[in-house]
Design brief:
- It is a single chain.
- The protein is of the alpha/beta class.
- Helices cover 38% and strands 17% of the residues.
- It contains 21 helices and 18 strands.
- Helix 5 links the parallel strand 8 and strand 9.
- Helix 18 runs parallel beside helix 20 and helix 20 crosses helix 21.
- About 2% of the residues have low confidence.
Length: 509
Amino acid sequence: MYSSVTTAILRGITSTLVNVEADVSSGMPHFEMVGFLSAEVKEAKERVKTALKNSGYELPPQRITVNIAPASIKKQGCGFDLPMAIAILSAMNVIELKDDKLMMIGELSLSGQINPVVGVLPILLDAVKNGITKCIVPYENYREAVLAKSIKVIPVKHLKDVISYINEETLPEYKDEILPKEYEEDAKYDFSNINGQKLLRRASEIAVSGMHNLLMIGPPGAGKTMIAKSIPSILPPMTEEECIVSSKILSVGGGFKNNPRLINVRPFRSPHHTISPQGLIGGGVMPAPGEISLAHNGVLFLDELTEFHKSTLEMLRQPMEDHEVSISRAAGKVTYPSNFMLVCAMNPCSCGYYPDLNRCRCDRNSIRRYFNKLSQPLLDRIDMCAEASMVSYHDIVAKEVNESSATIRNRVIRTHEIQRKRYVNENYNYNSDIPSNDVLRMCNLGEAENKFMEDIYEQYELTGRTYYKLLRVARTIADMAGDEDVNVMHLRESLMYRGIDKKYFEWGA
């Protein structure tokens, strides 16, 4: 007898519905699985056979064929175990499947227990779009699953629970503690706790106001890391669409296992400098999202920038331009979004005290080697570079009240609103995303401004990319001031955040 169960397969942060078909017919006893299956899916045969036996259901001595359709898609993952077991039981006439709007996902243990799987949220969100109204999920995935609205979620712990539900028997009552909790924003880092560093505070606000990438250079202990960790507190609230996309990425990456809640604060990712290229960009046999995708809609902070492997950093260049990363494997290509604000921090030399020659112990060659870890094409993709000076004793003990993150955030939101209105008919929202062919139109330079840019272009040996980045940052500074056009003062301040990298990198060249 033939039977079919609906389930889904993940493709990045999207999913595709597939059918697990089972046929039990007369013939020599044999269990065959087809449908372009990966190794872990083929292993499901033994898990399903043993789970059915330990749940009280012996397979008949007949020919059993399981097909996961369509056969043109490579099947990966362990979420097919439960649909396979139910399809076989239905083909054996043990149960009768009546609801064609029901789907199920889950991995089986040998005892029949149902184990959690990754990517439940994107699977259910896409299932709703395809007309699915009910889904059976592992109990441990329930908190995550109920985040997908408009679909009834049936949590189960054991294969017997699924059979009871299909046979219209009652499920065990589950306690309220499995419901998702609200996400509480971490208020540990706030700009009100930062004394001094007025230049860095100003640079951070400009960077967030236009979603520009920021590099901070300064001696150890100057507060670079603390400021970077405070930046999320001045980012505007996430939109509903941003919450959904960021949550889907976290779900696919397995991040909901210990913290199943919908993301409603912007991500802040700070990978260690020993991270591998696959950990940063994403990859693996089953391509998983890397740190750049987990930071989507938020901040990617790279502390001790020069300690990262150069080849790893170079892989950031294309995602920073395209706002997405594509990972190709033999089974196909997966694309993850990676639209993040890059914040970096580094010392000016190996000892950390250049250009203070009274304290710096580095010679010219060591400084050259230090800065050669960063390529010019990568630096060109960083919009702003700000210097962190050593904090004085007076700044440390000062009792003056610093401006809070909430106050700065209100100004940032106002500046973002100006940009949204300006770009209402464009396919971008922030000044940092203005394409090169639109920059001059959006900045509207006058005669004096064009003369200024002509003079500094040769003086600072700008590239086409850095020229446009200067204008984008100046556009943000003008928006913060409420000015319609970009003037020379805006351009001068924008240049200040490019001149600092020339101060360091040119000496080490």
